[in-house]
Amino acid sequence: MSETVSLNIGDKQVKLPVITGTENEKAIDISKIRAETGYITLDPGFKNTGATTSAITYLDGEEGILRYRGYPIEELAEKSSFLEVAYLLIYGELPTKSEFIDFQNKVSRHTLIHEDMKKFFEGFPTKSHPMGQLSALVGALSAFYPESLNPDATEEEDNLTIIKLLAKFPTIVSWIYKKSLGHPVIYPKNSLDYVGNYLNMTFGQLTEDVEIDPIVSSAMNKLLILHADHEQNCSTSTVRIVGSSNANLFTSISAGISALWGPLHGGANQAVIEMLEKIKEDGGDSEKWLAKAKDKNDPFRLMGFGHRVYKNFDPRAKIIKKACDDILNNLGVKDPVLDIAKKLEETALNDSYFVDRKLYPNVDFYSGIIYRALGFPTDMFTVLFALGRLPGWIAQWKEMRTNKEPIGRPRQIYTGEGKRHFVALKDR
Length: 428
Ligand code: ACO
Prior knowledge:
Blueprint: E1 4-9, E2 12-20, E3 26-28, H1 33-37, E4 57-60, E5 65-68, E6 71-72, H2 73-79, H3 82-91, H4 97-108, H5 118-123, H6 130-144, H7 155-181, H8 194-203, H9 214-227, H10 234-243, H11 249-261, H12 268-281, H13 286-294, H14 315-331, H15 336-349, H16 352-356, H17 364-374, H18 381-402
Acetyl coenzyme *A binds next to loops.
Pfam family, one: Citrate_synt
Keywords: Transferase, Tricarboxylic acid cycle
Protein name: Citrate synthase
């Protein structure tokens, strides 16, 4: 017999079904609770609320487990490529060799963006934040591909929209970077693989051929894979909820980009480097900054520390910390900020404030140091996170659409004024 739990409300008892996941995670299905009792549940920040069932990513915050479609993140980061992981997330299985070649060819064929989109780049102020530009440009793709607006599109039509977005995203991202430098843009080169093409458009020059160091492309692949999905986080939930109104893929992802921008989410990678720089300029005293983070009268938080779900360690941070050492050694880069990061981590992990609250370095703690070593400016870091997260967002949007999930519409408990009558301005 399937498991249920009982809920007593006054003299009424309701039986609520229990949903069990693949890894034996349990949820109480409250979808009928309002109809049966008139009550709703209240869960600010959705800390205990499952918004959906999903077959994409499994995450166990206590054990530090992260798997895409069943494959451990450690194996994917070590052995796979970003585009292969994108295929896995979006279509559910690793591609065969011929499926992968076909996918790669399709993506390569759509890398150009409409020439009229260049006018957007001209319109943005040179110093505008790349995330604001990215969100606007990705939303604008829907204006150039109106067929994507059809909520009744066939799977094949949706798939073409998915391919277009995957293909054009690196072009947009690298052109935003080129604009910030005042450099001419580099057009996509379809002979290169996905990440190689992105790096060529970013670091290539019109005036000379630039060889991309294999260490750099391997590091980029790894970083993008580690960011590719993370189940129902703030930006992904945003993508799903916007998409649930039948909004098109481009605009749903544009909303996800905006959600990612905040420093409590993807914007943390920029905030970490800015914080480490500040600590360095202040003399590098990590104890002093840890004291600030612990002081409840000080709004300062140790950026790159803590996670809503991981309460023992972030498996991505483990991989990234090692990758950071390897890359800096391989590229021969000495970054004093890395030493401060290591000292901060070591001190915090032995401090009862952080230990008691289960605050550990998250993926963003070290990713910024790698991006910096690869030559990216700080305000591009969150854009790189978005480039990595794109396949996850797409997979989640596709799953939501395939499952025909209802429009997202949470409820509330109203705590404002009771009914009162309007008083004319002259009498107030
Ligand atoms: N520095 C100092 N104290 C912290 C930190 C931090 N980075 N993070 C949490 N705390 C403290 C809180 O003050 C709170 O203390 P209290 O119990 O004494 O009031 C306790 O730890 C719990 O914190 P919450 O904010 O309730 O934890 P939550 O799970 O809601 O927040 C979050 C998680 C937002 C990531 C938080 O840890 C944080 O702000 N971290 C810094 C920003 C950051 O690195 N974000 C990136 C997240 S990963 C990602 O998006 C890829």
